[in-house]
């Protein structure tokens, strides 16, 4: 069975943890393709992900005209970690204005999609973010690895930290192999 993990990385301080996620995933037998938003590249460069995956990291919607379709079809599981408030809003509203959001729009129906948000606590509890989470839930298309409560990079203590990397990978593993009991 193939284990193709499509990882989306957005522009948050936890983007560096996406490198740990890729490293752990590769060691666990996944083949990983990484898509970064333009703002994600301000935190971690594509070369780091290319080095960890052995494949070029993808950033440009128009660089390879069909990359968004090919990547979407290739994925056995699609994970966005960290998921910014901004891309969360795009997913909730159907905005597809860069490679990451366009690729996620093209992911075939029924393909598992896992979201691991991370943001400042006030951002997380902002009514518009909570509304967008509700809208995404209503789609029935995505599962969550919830943010944890911890001391955040901004110094605040509260909900919004990226879930632990092994927990995100475990969610991808279980999305790939759903329980067979029924
Ligand atoms: C140092 C720094 C840290 C940030 N951390 C986060 C974060 O953890 N979560 C978040 O949603 N936005 C965070 N932002 C704001 C995003 O970078 C900003 O909303 C950006 O537009 C997101 O772009 P993207 O969603 O296209 O990647 C941070 C910004 C800066 C400058």
Structure overview:
The protein has 182 residues and is α/β, with parallel strands linked by helices. It has one domain (4-176): Flavin prenyltransferase-like (Rossmann fold), CATH 3.40.50. The protein contains 8 helices and 7 strands, in the order βαβααβααβααβββα. It has helices at residues 15-27, 46-53, 67-74, 85-93, 99-105, 121-125, 127-139, 165-176, and strands at residues 4-9, 31-36, 77-83, 113-117, 143-144, 148-151, 157-161. The strands form 2 sheets. A 5-stranded parallel sheet has the order 2-1-3-4-5, sandwiched between helices. Strands 6-7 form a two-stranded antiparallel sheet. Helix 1 (15-27) packs parallel to helix 2 (46-53). The longest helix has 13 residues, at 15-27. The radius of gyration is 15 Å and the shape is globular. The two termini are 20 Å apart. The site of flavin mononucleotide has 15 residues, from helix 4.
């Amino acid at each position: 069975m193939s284990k193709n993990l499509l990882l989306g990385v957005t522009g948050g301080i936890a983007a560096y943890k996406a490198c740990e996620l890729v490293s752990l995933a590769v060691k666990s037998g996944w083949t990983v393709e990484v898509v970064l938003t333009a703002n994600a590249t301000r935190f971690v460069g594509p070369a780091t992900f290319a080095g960890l995956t052995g494949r070029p990291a993808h950033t440009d919607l128009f660089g390879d005209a069909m990359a968004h379709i090919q990547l979407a079809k290739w994925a056995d599981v699609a994970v966005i970690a960290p998921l910014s408030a901004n891309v969360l809003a795009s997913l909730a509203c159907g905005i597809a204005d860069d490679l990451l959001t366009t690729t996620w729009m093209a992911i075939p129906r029924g393909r598992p999609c896992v979201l691991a948000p991370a943001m400042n606590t006030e951002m997380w509890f902002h009514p518009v973010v909570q509304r967008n989470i509700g809208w995404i839930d209503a789609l029935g298309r995505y599962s969550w690895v919830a943010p944890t409560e911890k001391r955040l990079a901004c110094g605040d203590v509260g909900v919004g930290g990226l879930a632990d990397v092994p927990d995100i990978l475990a969610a991808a593993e279980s999305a790939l192999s759903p329980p067979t009991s029924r």
